[in-house]
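Whether sequence alone determines local backbone shape is best considered at the level of individual chains. For completeness, the protein is quoted in full, as a sequence line and a line of structure tokens:
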Amino acid sequence: MSTKILALDTATENCSVALLVGETIYSRSEVVPRDHTKKILPMVEAVLKEAGLKLSELDALAFGRGPGSFTGVRIGIGIAQGLAFGAELPMIGVSTLAALAQGSYRKTKSEHIACAIDARMQEVYWARMSRQNNGEWLATDKECVIPPSVLVEKTENDEVVWTKSGTGWKAYSEDLSDLSISVSEGGVELPEAQDIVVLAQFEWQKGNTVDAENASPVYLRDNVAWKKMPGRE
């Protein structure tokens, strides 16, 4: 029986939705920095209609859990929780940094990705990801939020050529040009739900789901409050 997972992401300027049905992915994506709330549900309706499915017929609902824009992450998880509650679907949170890595692999086939999302406040959300034989991604650096100048000091050279991915490379190009690692161009700048849904399938197969009331964001900054859903402790 085909696995059916819906994924949505609003953690960055990009607003995207994807529906995985077996090996087929239906997707919508648009860069709309201030219109996520207007765009996301029509995108959900569009991919479900294209696939000929109802929300209640799906197996799980995946979402970009962050890091990313605080408002964007909250919008995404709030809408995802609402849909999951209504259809009684389990949820799967996927790192937006891992989604960047998957997107870069989809575009370039590079298996070593240096992900940097512009976190504002002179910082980047950072992680280096390496693709494993089974298609999953392993973070060789722990996901973090860090000033580019500090990242330059802490990052040691290795023998890997890392493909640059994310908005942080352009936003802090001068500082990050001093990194001692070898890098190449060609990655993607923004995460997409079509890559989130691919990664969500791995978590689904391992049984790594949560109930809607327990789904939570990852901000990486400690000074951000998350308004809990009813019933959350």
In short: The domain at 97-184 is CATH 3.30.420.40 (Nucleotidyltransferase; domain 5). The radius of gyration is 17 Å. Residues 223-233 have pLDDT under 50 and may be disordered. DSSP finds seven helices and eleven strands in the chain.
